[in-house]
C-alpha cells in the first residue's frame, strides 16, 4: 500500500543505434516519449514520439540521400534563415557565397554532454572549420542541447563568437510537423498580420490556412507573444511552440499534397546578412543563449 502512495519516477535513458547514420535515442520510458537525433546529418532531430505517437514528419527518401537537404525533422538554420539573392552576401566589401538556410543543417556535429538524471538530454556541438570559414569568415562554436521530459521537447542553444570581431548571424529552427488532414488544423499565432514571402503582399490572419493552395509561405514579422498553438482535430493533438524573445519572427510553410506543415521561429528575415535587419551582432568572446520549447498534448 505504501508503494501505491509514492509519486511515479520517470525513467530516462539515451541509447545509440546504428542505422544509416548513428542515431541517438533519448527516452522518457514512463511517458512513452522518445526523440531521435542524428549528429552527423546536421545535428537533426528526425523523430519525436509522445505517448508513442509521432509528432514530426520525415521524408525518408531524401534523408537517406546525403546529397539532398533533409525535408523533415527539425533542421537547424545558421548563420542565415532562408536564402540570399544569388546566394551572395557582402561583408567588408568582399562577396561571399552562402546557400539557403546556411550550413549548420548539412555538417556533422560532435557529441557533448549526455544527461539521464531528471530528464534525457544530449548536447551537440558544431565548431567553425576551414569549410565554414570559406563561406562565413568567423570562428564560432554552437552547442545545442535536446532535452525531453514527459510531453515536452526543449532545444537550448548557445552561440559563441570565437573571432576577434563582432559576428553577424541569424538563426532558426525549421520543424516539420506531421499532419495527415490539414483541413483539420487551427492555429493560434501571436500576430494579426503576415507577409507573403513570394508576393510580398500583406494579409490578415484568420486562424486557418487553405490546404488546397499549392504552397503557403508567409512570415509573421510583428509578434505579440512568445508562443503559438496548433490544434489538429484529426489527430486529437494540441501542439504548443514557445520561444524566447530572440525569436522575432514565425514563418509558416505548407505544400499541397505533403503531410506536413512547418512553423519556424527565426531571429531575422531572409537576406538579413545583407540588409542588417534584426541581425544579431555577437561581440568577440561573447555567448548568447536561446530556447525553443515544444509541448504535445493529446486531447
TrEMBL record:
<dbReference type="InterPro" id="IPR008183">
    <property type="entry name" value="Aldose_1/G6P_1-epimerase"/>
</dbReference>
<dbReference type="InterPro" id="IPR011013">
    <property type="entry name" value="Gal_mutarotase_sf_dom"/>
</dbReference>
<dbReference type="InterPro" id="IPR014718">
    <property type="entry name" value="GH-type_carb-bd"/>
</dbReference>
<dbReference type="Pfam" id="PF01263">
    <property type="entry name" value="Aldose_epim"/>
</dbReference>
<protein>
    <recommendedName>
        <fullName>Aldose 1-epimerase</fullName>
    </recommendedName>
</protein>
